[in-house]
Design brief:
Strand content: under 5%
Helix content: over 70%
Structural class: mainly alpha
Number of helices: 8
Shape: globular
């Protein structure tokens, strides 16, 4: 078991350094610091509020499902962050390209990645053709978290899994009441 854990940690750090250092370019430097905020609380909650206020009844219902998915996934990651206490990569690793505003809470799992997947997956499940637009955006938000030095790749992968599972469970749960 120790070999597996050692391999996973080493691979995670290597992939982190590859994304954080080796794919640096002007385009990513300009775009990713802005895209990363699409997974933040302000944008996520504002978007859902607009959907619930302006959309038709069916899309409003999906917005409510997405909000429930977002809240439930964030309750879970709050407890995971407290239980796991994984330090952010810039506090542990050398030579990290870091964004201008480092975070002070724990790294695992990524809240931004969890948020975006918990929301977009609700809409992708109801309207699968939206996946063509929303999935690349969600993956780009996860990539941005590593690129900006804030998370390890596994933080984002697990965040995406938690967000996706949350959306599936909420939709499944609602199917019993419809």
């Amino acid at each position: 078991m120790n070999r597996v854990v050692t391999w996973l940690v080493t691979s995670d750090e290597h992939l982190f350094h590859f994304v954080n250092q080796n794919i640096k370019c002007r385009i990513f430097d300009a775009i990713l610091p802005k895209i990363t905020h699409l997974g933040g609380a302000t944008f996520s909650l504002s978007s859902l509020l607009l959907i619930m206020l302006l959309a038709n009844e069916i899309v409003r219902f999906w917005g409510i499902q997405a909000l429930i998915s977002l809240v439930s996934s964030h309750l879970l990651i709050h407890f995971i962050k407290k239980a796991y206490c994984r330090q952010r990569p810039y506090t542990k690793l050398a030579h990290v390209n870091l964004c201008s505003r480092p975070l002070k809470d724990y790294s695992f799992p990524s809240g931004h990645t969890t948020a975006v997947f918990s929301i977009i997956m609700v809409f992708c499940i109801h309207l699968p053709y939206l996946s063509i637009l929303l999935m690349p955006l969600a993956f780009l938000i996860g990539l941005s978290r590593v690129y900006l030095g804030l998370h390890y790749p596994t933080d984002c992968i697990i965040g995406a899994c938690i967000g996706t599972l949350s959306a599936i469970l909420v939709i499944f749960g609602f199917s019993f009441y419809i």
